[in-house]
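User: Hello! I'm new to structural biology and keep hearing that structure can be predicted from sequence alone. Could you demonstrate with MFS transporter? Please show me the input and the output so I can see what each looks like.

Assistant: Of course. The first part below is the input, the amino acid sequence of MFS transporter. The second part is the output, the predicted structure written as tokens.
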Amino acid sequence: MSMSGYRPWVVWSVGLFAYLIGVMNRTSFGVAGLDAADRFGAAPAVLSGFLVLQLLVYALLQIPTGILLDRFGARTLVVVGALVMASGQLLLALAETLPIAIAARVLVGAGDALTFISVLSVVNAWFPPRTVPVMTQLTGLLGQGGQILSALPFAALLHQGGWTPAFVSAAGLGVAAAIAVAAVLRNRPAGAPTPVSATSWRAVSDSLKASWSEPGTRLGLWTHTGTQFAGTVFALMWGVPYLVVGQGMSSAAAGGILTLLVLVGVVAGPLFGEFAARHPTRRSWLVIGVIMATAVAWTAVLLTPAPAPRWLIVVLVVVLAAGGPASMIGFDYARTFNPGHRQGTAVGIVNIGGFTASLLVTLGVGAVLGLAGGYTPDSFRAAWVVQYAVWGIALAGVIIARRRARRKLADEGFPVRPLREVFAERRRETVKS
């Protein structure tokens, strides 16, 4: 194969490496929670606030990141993001007071916010449209390997070498990612047309309004909102306490359940991507199915007296694992419904949905636990109910946005036939044959 054939994979691999290191930086503080409590004298409630702060910074920066992506391109944003995260990790390595640690995590969250949607734009530019849904899924899934870097080599260095060497090493990997991206990654193939980006505040405002007014963008937003948050909240914050206290599992068993969450996501991702590529007009049914299946699985667990049968917990986790791959379909909507010059803005709008929902549900579960008496099975049962409001709102948003998106497609000469008509036609053809 010629070098031109290898080039997209080389560019994508470098972008994926930067995202992988970004995920490692994002999750490194969680691995160091007990060490942070000793170093800064912080209570558990204060440490949990670091996750909320990280999600808040990430969510608030998504739309500005999308606008910057359309203006400056992926290469610049990924380099800046890697360097900002590296500076945050270096500051955390040297921090001895809680305010400095908080400032460091803000920098990590800000750099993280610049990375993912920028790498997705590289996928959109370098791969054929038929391949993009699968490559998008692979990017998201393989990037989560950064959690393994946090859990294994980073944690080993932290416990053997100490706080400062561990976080300095993480900062060094961030600098290495920035250098690799600057040397290899390009926004688009040579000769590809450069999208005309907004050059004034008025043009930026018009681009943002146009992206938001596009029904497909809102369909992507509600898709991401309804599918991403449940697995994120479970994996990053409340899953292990619930499994240990609410379901009576050991810490080791709870860790095994979270491993299952990752493994199922790895299997589901490519399958969802292939479905989206083969059936682009039926993507919403997959999204609706995942939202409803998640709500049904949680209902079954919450209505079952604790401890629930282990098989039922496994079913819940398998369904939760489908939420991550399903949320990636939201980015596919942003890609297919928006022109190239404002896809970054559209993807930023989509990406804000799930992380905002994760932030609100994380806070909501914590608030209900506090009001209901702390970590008890009954308190957890009440706390998880806050998820239903988000599912209801997101499901309504998906249905309404889908109707408007299909109406626009019909006006443009590309009507989407209802499934009932398709099935009825197939039945008639079967009878005739």
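User: So the tokens describe the shape?

Assistant: Right, they're a compact way of writing down the 3D structure. Reading them back into a model, for example: The mean pLDDT is 86.
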